[in-house]
Amino acid sequence: MNNAVFALTAAVFYFAGGLSAGLRLFASRDHARPPRHLGITFGFAGALLHGLMLLSGMAAEGGLNLGFFHAFSLAAWTVVLVLLVSSLSKPVENLGIVLMPAAALTVLAALANPGVHLLPNDAAWALKLHVIVSLLAYSVLSIASVQAVLLAIQDHHLRRHQPGGFVRALPPLQTMESLLFEMISVGFVLLTAALGTGFVFLEDMFAQHLGHKTMLSIIAWVLFAVLLWGRYRFGWRGKVAIRWALTGFAVLLLAYFGSKAVMELILRR
Questions:
Q1: pLDDT digits (tens, 9 = 90+) for 105-129
Q2: CA 93/CA 114 separation, integer angstroms
């Protein structure tokens, strides 16, 4: 099988997993909802083929190809993998309704745009560790952001006394909220480690064109820190917690991929 076959088949499995999650959430009748394990199985099949596609497409002579679309696809693969492993023990598989189709789109984008931006084989260990931890931090906080969106929808329906259908398929509100803060706490620890390892290898962030990325990452870290402190000190929940979580993720998204898009796709550096 070549890289295109891996990518296209992975995309099909991801879309099937997202469709399965969607039917579980939105089907009006219980018998129309597919079993929970079906979407998870589709997801694992897609993730396996996605991983093979990345292994084939990112391996380059002299280093690892972390061009914009390959990096985005690698992040999406990590997000889906974290979600699927978590779903084996926690009721988070419904997040696949967004995350799996999104991963499918990154697979297709990487296939169509195989740009090259190498991380050299002889790169410092701190840089390699920074890349790995950064991907994990982004992945966990990505899942948390989708969880926050579902929590917002669930809260909206319950406040309007509309607990049927879609909302009925979700775990209880308190469980959804607890899962959200568990994800944010883990993501915050990983983001802290990512920033720490980043400063180890960062000699001159402005000369390396990393100033905006660094500052936005720090701002995102502060936003998540304030959210966790507010939860601990004042018991923040509901709309307040959701707004802080989504704002923090939006800033983090700009930090991780906004600056990379400008540098590689616009400035061609």
A1: 999 998 888 766 667 766 776 777 7
A2: 30
59-60 and 63-65 as β-strands: parallel, antiparallel, unpaired? Answer: antiparallel
The tokens of 3 are what?
A: 């890289």
φ and ψ of 64, to 5 deg: -105, 125
HSE-up (13 A, CA, CB side) for residue 250: 8
State the Cα–Cα distance between residues 98 and 82, nearest whole angstrom: 14
Contact criterion met (CB below 8 Å) for 34 and 96: no
Question: Cβ of 108: how many Cβ atoms within 10 Å?
Answer: 17
206 pLDDT band, cuts 50/70/90, is very low
Q: Which one of 98-102, 164-168, 195-199, 204-208 scores highest in mean pLDDT?
A: 98-102
Q: Please name the residues in contact with 50: beta carbons below 8 A apart, sequence gap of 6 or more.
A: 6, 7, 10, 14, 73, 76, 77, 80, 103, 107
